[in-house]
Prior knowledge:
The protein contains 4 helices and no strands. By secondary structure, it is mainly α.
Amino acid sequence: MRVACYLKLLLIAALAGNRPGTAQEPxxxxxxxxxxxxxxxxxxxxxxxxxxxxFAKWKPLVAELGKIQTEFQTTAPNDRPALIQKYExxxxxxxxxxxxxxxxxxxxxxxxxxxxxxxxxxxxxxVSDFEEE
Length: 133
């Protein structure tokens, strides 16, 4: 079922932010008059840009869902219905965005199959589809 795929994506996205070496390091201060030390990366394809925009919408949803799940464990039973309602609203948003994210990931992969982030996500879609059948 597609729900299993999307739940895996929630987990993958949550874990993607916790990978060692993915922390943003501050950029070194450069002299504005000096030329950049390294050439800027090549512009992303339009498909990769669309994927990045959708993934940027996806990540905060996943993060907030994870926070609610953690908070639920320590919340008093009387306060849980509000958390459940909030969780279900965010889950609905994530489930609506998931097919859009999938399509944009597939398009981005076709445009640039060496993009590791896109390739990993497309692979997870493939594995999930395979497990469903």
